[in-house]
Design goal:
Blueprint (H helix, E strand, L loop, with lengths): L7 E5 L9 H10 L9 E5 L5 H7 L6 E4 L16 H6 L4 E4 L2 H6 L4 H14 L2 E6 L3 H5 L3 H12 L9 E5 L13 H19 L1 H5 L1 E5 L7 H5 L6 E4 L6 H15 L1
The structure holds glyceraldehyde-3-phosphate.
Length: about 260
């Protein structure tokens, strides 16, 4: 199946990385300076402490830099939070919102995630909105209901293909080394595509839908072959340049 949507390879460093890791960012930034980067987008989301330096390191690279979360308000008395404007001020272009670790560890609701995505849009950032079912929800047959509810609740009404990326991350696949079957990924992505088209029409047809959860250089190719998988959101395997670049290389067959 030929895919026409420009894919995205995104890395999420989570709460990992200090100044000592900047050489990995530099190696990734240099490693994606190949002709393939004319066909695919690459993005790395280091911790907020490294954002500004990371964007400087990527000055002459197609690698974009983004953040892992933003507050829903523009500014104010919100100790420890960062705003979308602060991310943009560091030359970040994307922000992940609604990651399952934030939903779980910070009790973030769909409504809050939607407000964060809206704040990103209002600031000109691309919002990567994460959704996905837990093991319990999957085992009790609720997967598609959860995806529908989270899509409706977390994605702002004005979302477009240019401003919004959906990341499907089954919670049980994150950091476990367990990846759903191709059939399960295909079913979930086809379902999300249909839901997005119903709500957003042409914009929904063109919105990128990433798969995330234990993606590696070894399994990226088969995941990218699945219809409506328009890229991947990578955690652990984005920390080392060699691992990230192995996943980058996996995009060659489908998209070069
Ligand atoms: O944001 C990234 C995901 O949570 C996936 O993490 P992982 O690749 O370590 O499973």
């Amino acid at each position: 199946m030929t895919k026409t949507i420009r894919p995205l390879l995104a890395g999420n460093w989570k709460m990992n990385g200090t100044r000592a890791s900047l050489d990995q960012i530099k190696a990734i930034a240099d490693g994606v300076k190949t002709p393939l980067s004319e066909k695919i987008d690459t993005l790395l989301c280091p911790p907020a402490t490294l954002l500004y330096v990371a964007t400087a390191l990527c000055d002459d690279s197609p690698l974009a830099i983004g953040a892992q979360d933003c507050h829903q308000q523009v500014s104010g008395a919100h100790t420890g939070d960062i705003s979308a404007e602060m991310i943009a001020d560091c030359f970040g272009t994307h922000v992940i919102v609604g990651h399952s670790e934030r939903r779980r560890n910070h009790a973030e609701s769909d409504m809050l995630v939607r407000a964060k995505a809206q704040a990103a849009h209002d600031t000109g950032l691309i919002a990567i909105i994460c959704i996905g079912e837990t093991a319990y929800e999957r085992n009790s047959g609720q997967t598609l209901d959860v995806l529908k509810r989270e899509l409706i609740g977390s994605v702002p009404d004005g979302a477009t293909a240019a401003t919004t990326v959906i990341a499907y991350e089954p919670v049980w696949a994150i950091g476990t080394g367990v990846v759903p079957t191709s059939e399960d990924v295909e079913e979930a992505h086809a379902f999300m595509r249909a839901e997005l088209i119903e709500r957003f029409g042409k914009e929904g047809a063109n919105m990128r839908i990433l798969y995330g959860g234990s993606v590696s250089g070894a399994n990226a190719r088969s995941l990218l072959d699945i219809p409506h998988v328009n890229g991947v959101l990578v955690g652990g395997q984005s920390l080392k340049a060699a691992d990230f670049l192995a996943i980058y290389a996996a995009f060659e067959r489908q998209f070069a």
